[in-house]
Amino acid sequence: MPVMTEFDDINLPELAVYRKQHETQLFHWFEPEPGVFLAESPKVIERALRAGYEPISVLCCRGDIEGEAAGVISMADVPVFTSDSDTITELTGFRLIRGAICAMRRKKMPAPEELCRGLRRIAVLEGVVNPANVGAIFRSAAALGIEAVLLTATCTDPLYRRASRVSMGTVFQVPWTYLPGAVTDMELLRRLGFRTAAMALVDDSVDIDDEKLNSEERLALILGAEGDGLSPETVSASDHKVCIPMSNEVDSLNVAAASAVAFWQICRGMR
Questions:
Q1: Whole-prediction pTM
Q2: What are phi and psi of 52, to 5 degrees?
């Protein structure tokens, strides 16, 4: 049975992990071991627990203990700290969504070679920095059949609180890891056995429903940063350049919206 602790003093040592910590600080919390992340909302916490992430403690608004948070409090079976909403906002620097947040230990990242063995459809994110976009991309990946996500080192961490919350916890369901460097390692993708498709508005782009593209046995779809898109090196080295046909003189979609359209199309034959 979890131990419940009511608090008014936000300076308790046990609350340090929640005390307005920058997420990069949490990343290095147990260095050289993997660090800590904060999973916010009962749905996200539940999916993290089911994926095998180790909880440290739960922070919960007093009025939500018997509500949606009750199930994950029981599942986590770790110390639970409770207070009123205003005190928790003072502690964390933000107002909790649905009244619960859980500090959890990170796992060691798998190598791309280990992660992608035998997979047919993966996504690669290059320099996608907006946490909401990263979260939305993971949610689409989970829903539409993408089997894994690789991220360049310049992408926002999928376990950042906002990213995992926007994803509705699907960052814990879709396997992912990092690629070395700021630009996609195209040679690595080829060694892993993937043909590559860059989402890019260039003269030789083909539509996302192109027959040759969709007949590829193993395909890595590469999506770029919100403003600048993919690096010229990545686009030129790709086997396919791909775009989504547009109407009304709209030239492109937000990367999260584009990912949903593209994932649906390239995974059609696998469903």
A1: 0.92
A2: 90, 15
